[in-house]
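Dear colleague,

Thank you for sharing your sequence with our group. We've completed the structure prediction you requested, and as agreed, I am returning the results in plain text so they can be pasted directly into your records. Please verify that the sequence below matches your submission; if there's any discrepancy, let me know and we will rerun it promptly.
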Amino acid sequence: MKILRITILFILLPFIVLAQDVFTGWEAHLSYTHIVDLILEDNLIYAASENAVFTYDIQTGEIQKITTIDGLEGGDITSFGYSENTNMLLIGYENGLLQLVDLEEVEVSTFVDIVEKHSIQANKKQINHIRMDGEFAYISTDYGISVFNMSRKEFGDTYYIGYLGSQLEVNQTAVFDGYIYAATPGGIKRAVASNPNLIDSNNWYTRQGGNYKAVQVIGSELYAWKGDREIQRLVNDNFVTVYTHNSDIIDFRASKTNLFLSSLTKGFAFTPDFTLESEMYIGVENLDRGAVYTTGLAEDGMFFIGTTTLGILHNGFSGGLSLQILPEGPLHNDVFTVDAYNEEVWVAYGDVTAGYNPYPLKKRGISKLHDEYWTNVPFQDIFQANDLVKTRINKKKPEEVYFTSYQKGLLKVVNDEPTILYNETNSPLNLGEGSTNFGIRLYGLDFDNQENLWFVQTGVQHGLIRLSSEGRMTKVNLEGVIPYDRELSLTDLVVTNEGNVFFATAHNGIIGYNPQTKKFNQIRSGTSGGLTGGYNRALAIDLQDRLWIGTARGLRVLQNTANFFNTSNPVARQIIIMDGDVPQELLFEIPINAITVDGSNNKWIATSTSGAFYVSATGQETIHHFTKDNSPLPSNDVQDIAVDPENGKVYFATAKGLMSFKGAATAARDDLAGLHAFPNPVRPDYTGMVTISGLMRNTNVKITDLEGNLVFEATSQGGTVQWDTRAFGKYKVASGVYFVMANANDGTTTKVTKIMIVR
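Please find the predicted structure tokens below.
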């Protein structure tokens, strides 16, 4: 499989082709529930969801996906077309981007011509519809019609068909009886298809006035969708109304055998002479799940109708139970929070703005990934707990998972079943006090070593709360620490190995609390405490008990948490790195959403604007910087990151979907029984690192050749170290067998394994 990224600069400049290998080590965990467009061709359904495409074989039931892993851009798909001549898909996006998918090779080519066309306003570049006619694709946009040659993979002319050649929104085109018809808000425009001078707007005539949404050809008939409810047929060169629907139409299209018309809840199949042949209703049970129709097809006695939350619903004209066509995936793509442990992943879809405003409220469920299969729990089954913003798996009881709602309380899930929503009716939690009475706004949460769950609530005086492993809730009074009625939000929370609790605030810095001594301390904004003054969004405690702080304006680190409560004015510092000879602040002014520490004590940092960073234990080295331009991330807005400590896999919750990357760092083990090196053997074509896993914390690792010559030595921070197969970083070692000797720091445990190097 190949990925081609192509830039064609308009008209005079040659195109540039940039080739890149397939993204290895990545997986896409996207939602396919919201269907944008459908095509039926030779027993294959091609379906476009929000930012990916999948195919469904009607005869075999086989599903294949095309995602950002294969080179798709990851943005909002608005329309696509299939070329039978070339066996290619042409995918159009909201921003005007076009991508061509060769279905034989699964090769993706990207065209940015429309995106980079400066004479077109950014809000007028959306691809509304793609009509195939032989080797040509007529691309309807908000500025006019662009022609794309599918065989030559290049743009042709652009038709500006408004008054005196002005830009005019085109919703759809159709080629019929020697003419090109264009449905526009200003009427049906028509031009002779064979006219070599269609770039001249004088050759486009307004055949019929009105607001037209679509034009469709079936057999020897041409139909048009006018306004919100009216369907017209071309009769004696005039468009005549043949049908008026009793509610707003949301889609109208033709197949080889039928015309399909849909409202939000009903689909209709008409014959070519517009006789009603069959109807399909979405069903009350599906409406209760928030589903309505988006688009659809009717052909050869079958319905295929896309929905907002259920994927495709398939049924025959004779009725009966509908078949759901839906690839494995979570409920939604805009994942806001994620946690992972022991190869299980939980996500939720709540949301708050940068200013911690949850409106408009998101009434959504939760999702769990295990062994490549998803368990999705709908909103109705989670006690209607909206805006779930943080989740934590109880690592000592992985069957227990908790979610905080930024309005409704604390949700507990056991063995995939929601069991209780702690709120004002069944717990000491109370609604926001005084002028801040906006529900129960919970945010950050974390477990201590005794399985107590700590979390924070905004808008109450007792805003720090502990839920014991027995289910008893205790509230900590924050009077004199922060003014609860003037604090916008309490945000993230972490617990150190010693049991000390740190939580962040929007306006009052970082608060530390020692449950043993009941003592508080505070890192303040400005020069006194070193914080940037931006909203404090993210916290993480690393393996050396340093507190990492992510704010709306960059990164800070408190180097020593052990003496925090004995320091009168604790200060968090920026990390200074060298850019050549120039000192720079790491992640200067970049808004940070989340920080996660992996088993090697390296940090994964999620940002709102710049993707994800992977930095070394001290932050002095940037190991990876993933963006939507150099990785399969579908968005640079990464809202959360989780690392599964058991296998090192990294999960990125982005505004456009969940992705994972096969990291190498695992958590420290209790013994060395699982010592393992991979890949093994190391073959000649392998250029990556060798990972030694299954280590205890602070394990000394030595690698020697058969004669006992030392070629590598390191001490593990967590459960993993990596070796570049060089002798102390200087030269590649020769082919042969090498011994890996792991010694625990207490000197009582030693284990040996082997690695074979083949050059």
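Summary note from our side: Residues 587 and 608 are 12 Å apart (CA to CA).

Kind regards,
the structure core
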